[in-house]
Amino acid sequence: MTNIYYNLGRKVGASINKGKWYYQSAFGSEKDAIKAELAVGRELARNIAKENKIIKDPSLQNIIDEIGDQLFRKVIDKKRKYKFYIVASPDINGFALPGGLIFLTDKLLKKIYDHKDEIAFVLAHEMMHIVFKHPMERIVADYSTNVVTKLLVKGGSLGMLAKQVLANLLKSGYSQDKEFEADEYAVRIMYSAGFNPTGAIGLLRKLESSSKNNLSIFNYFVSHPSADERIKKIESIIKKRKMKLQIQIRSEENL
Questions:
Q1: Considering the domain boundaries, does residue 250 fall inside one?
Q2: Would you say residue 35 lies in a domain?
């Protein structure tokens, strides 16, 4: 999301200015790491809210929250809570911040708001990034723990390093393996929660066909593998796990 990326890179110098959060995430206990993730995610969310309009639409927010809660009930690890935001943007995209904060653009939701299975896939995909710690691991991995430790010992602000790390997190996305991992478990958990897994395929095909004439939709694929690759793997997962395509609740499929 061009504007959001730009504003983050320009404004979030103070977002992670307490180096202890990096330290806890890289070296602390699981409890410390989760606390670190949430602190970083909240600070980033505040910066996003300062530079972009957060949409306050109760009816739309309720739909997202209900779907998110339905998915969350199937997540075994309840240590992280999830909060969903709608941000005004000309781009079609969604992204996860450390700690359980998930943003969807209003333009993305306008294309899928009446298709709950498609919304479920978007939310589940971003939730799985958080479950597998992809956002925070990416932040820590981009810079060696040695460099981070030196900053902490000196007690200084991360300053420009924070700007670079945060901008890189949102612009570059994750490796294909991590994206496929998020896709696989997103499909599994949405099916477990009672959503039709083919909603994932429908969403990807819809966005891919529209992207040919709409560059804003292309942004959704910038940090993701191609739609064709993702669809093939999702179809393989549905077939391998013998998922029935009608909507139903499967309590035994908790993740």
A1: no
A2: yes
